[in-house]
Amino acid sequence: MNEVHAKRLLDSYRHWTDQDLLDVDLSRPLLKQLDEAELVILSHGTELDPILNYGNKRAKALWEMDDQQFVSTPSRLTAEPMEREQRQAFLREVTANGYVSNYTGIRISATGRRFYIEDAVVWNVIDEAGQYCGQAAAFQSIRRIEA
Hints:
Layout: H1 3-17, H2 30-35, E1 40-44, E2 52-55, H3 57-62, H4 67-70, H5 81-97, E3 99-108, E4 114-126, E5 132-139, E6 141-145
Antiparallel strand pairs: 1-2, 1-5, 3-4, 4-5, 4-6
C-alpha cells in the first residue's frame, strides 16, 4: 500500500460518512498514521474474488498474518464458510449505499481463532475521479469467541 491508497481510504470515508476516520496530522505520512491507528483498518480491491490490499498493524495482528500473507488473502477467507453468504449480502448493501455502519459479524483468523467484529463501518473506496476501487472496513470493538 502507498500514500495514494491511504489518502483514498481517508477521503472515501469522509465522502460517505461526512466524518473523519482519523484525526490526521499533516506533518506525518498518512500511511504511518493508518498503520498505527487505534482502529482495525483493512481494505480489499476489485478483483472477481477480492484480495485484501491493506491491513494496519491491528488488522494483521487480529487475523494473525504477516504483511505478505495478508495482502495475498481473498477477503472472503476472513469469514468462516457458514458466514460468507451473509457477508456477501452485506457487501452488496455497502456497494449499493456507499457505506454501512454498526455492522457486527463473526470472523476467523489464519490460525482458526474466531471473533466478533462489532460496530464496524464498511465503505466503498473511490479514487479521485469517483471511480469504485474497492471496499474498506474499520472497527475498534472485537469480542473473542472461546472454543
